[in-house]
Batch of 2 targets.
Target 1
Amino acid sequence: MMQVKNFMEDLVWEKVDEVIDCQKNLCRCEHCRYDVVALALNFLPPRYVVSHQGEMFTKVKELEQQFNIDILSAITNAAIIVSGKPRHEQGEKRIEPHQSTEDAY
Ligand SMILES: [Zn+2]
């Protein structure tokens, strides 16, 4: 089966958790996570490809190398914006990031 697909979307989902883990101020709720992904994708150029099964992996890896830095910085920017202005509903609870004790005295 053939499909037209924006691979940027897959790559952002693949990397979002890695970036979010480094953002100490970002709320951990699902809504904020989706907001980060949507915003990051708005910063990035879409990359549509026709995908056949089997061919996907090579394409993704190719694009990943090409756009890795752009993707990481788009997600970081998005996370900073979302953490400064979370849009989760009132009543939806803010979920605090895990506190790291490593840098405590
Ligand atoms: Zn939230």
Target 2
Amino acid sequence: MKNKKITRKITQGVYSLTTKNGGCIVDAVSQISSGDNPLVAVAVMNSNFTNELLKENDTFAISVLDKEVDGKIIETFGLNSMRDINKFEEIETVEINEIKIIKQSIGYMLCEKVDMIENETHTLFIGKIIEADVFNDLEPMSYSHYQSHKDEILKVKTEDGKTAWICTICGYIYYGDSIDDDFRCPICGADKYDFKIKEN
Ligand SMILES: Cc1cc2nc3c(=O)[nH]c(=O)nc-3n(C[C@H](O)[C@H](O)[C@H](O)COP(=O)(O)O)c2cc1C
């Protein structure tokens, strides 16, 4: 493959996907159909806790994040696991039909899970929109904008005395003098060649 980074140029946004007891940041969302209750698909890594939750729950919500969104929302939901922290204690949410959605968002789609397609690494969850609202007129964050500005968006501080390496795929920060050959990003699985030294 000459350069798979072209996939980062597929136009998609940055969203928070929530369900009962958890959620994460996703970009892999697409609309499948329109009509009164459109169908949407969201691909979630099998290793994410959110994947387990979505298999147990029948309802999930997708909140659309804006271009100026507080980086703490992306950091909390996208670079941490609910296995380790309670994301809902860190970020303000509002509850719609027992699902917490991000308060600082452009709006949300509440979906009823109608299908699941299993893949080796991801599960594609298909949802029928049963409720939705638009809160404001802000410009949505595109995944491509996130990729080119994640250093500023995440505002991650370098820990004293250690070199910080940023994963150019997801923004995860690794601290250490060097990166082992077999190192894999714990968030997105990228290899050491996808890490670069983070300049402050
Ligand atoms: C900008 C961005 C986009 C992401 N897109 C996806 C995605 O489409 N699907 C996915 O499964 N994870 C995606 N992630 C990674 C998850 O949000 C991340 O692994 C999260 O820590 C999982 O949390 P959980 O274990 O609580 O589910 C993305 C992360 C970021 C920062």
